[in-house]
Specification:
It comes from Pseudosulfitobacter pseudonitzschiae. One of its GO terms (molecular function) is uronate dehydrogenase activity. Belongs to the NAD(P)-dependent epimerase/dehydratase family. Its EC number is 1.1.1.203. The chain is α/β, with parallel strands linked by helices. It has a single domain, classed as 3-Layer(aba) Sandwich (Rossmann fold). 32% of the residues lie in helices and 17% in strands. The protein contains eight helices and nine strands. The strands form two sheets. Strands 3-2-1-4-5-7-8 form a seven-stranded parallel β-sheet, with helices on both faces. Strands 6-9 form a two-stranded parallel ribbon. α2 runs parallel beside α3 and α3 packs parallel to α4. The longest helix has 22 residues. The chain is globular.
Length: 278
Amino acid sequence: MLNKIVLTGAAGALGHALREQLSKMAKELVSTDIAEAQGDLMPNETWVTADLGDFDPVLNMMEGASMVVHFGAIANESDFDSILHSNFRGTYNIWEAARRHGVQRVVYASSIHAVGMYPKNEYIGVDTPHRPDTFYGLAKCFGENLGRMMWEKNGIEAVCLRILSAAPVRSTRALGTWLSMPDLVHLVTRAIDTPTTEFTIIYGVSNNDRCPVDNSGASFLGYKPQDNAEQFAEEIFAEATPADPSDPAQTRHAGPFATIPFGQGVDLSKMGGSQSED
């Protein structure tokens, strides 16, 4: 059992889903978000309300931590200054505080949007170079590169979870990109309990028949998703509008993120969700 885990973005849908399992994996769980605590705390859980863009509270909560599960961020495209504060600076603060306190590993909620502009008919792997679609995706590239640098120069392990769609299946895109909550918990558990990871990228996606990405390069983590979005296919296709092969929103891994203007968010409910960290 680990001494202490710090979970950021703990008030978001995904962070909330992780709290119970993380509390079982460490003597102490520190959950943090810019929002107040959501629901009752676990017996070994402490809640810290903080802005990750401010370094001092991040540094303080990291003391004595074995690992950090970093899900705190703006979870959609937004104006650059907001993304800069929460997603760039907040992520830097996490890794810098981890470096100062000798934290073993950072488990980072990255995103498909770090590689979102690749065509969907390209079966991309975990070693695929960055090709972001938005300021939001660009921040995920920054987080992955920061994690690699901190591993290579400071020995802090990193597992970067390129999450596809961790939300109810409401679109044809989500039939391939869906990540169920049980599979999310399993993914994060494997990212924590694998003895050594060095720097690793893995896609956060369920065992979907139409999965558009390849996780074989990270198979050593032992992530074996169980859920499959195909159970929703008949209903989704019955309500779907005709496909348009000239629309990048339908032909790129990014979905609608491929076509929105910089700084303008999308309605995540219509695309089957994004990672919804916060």
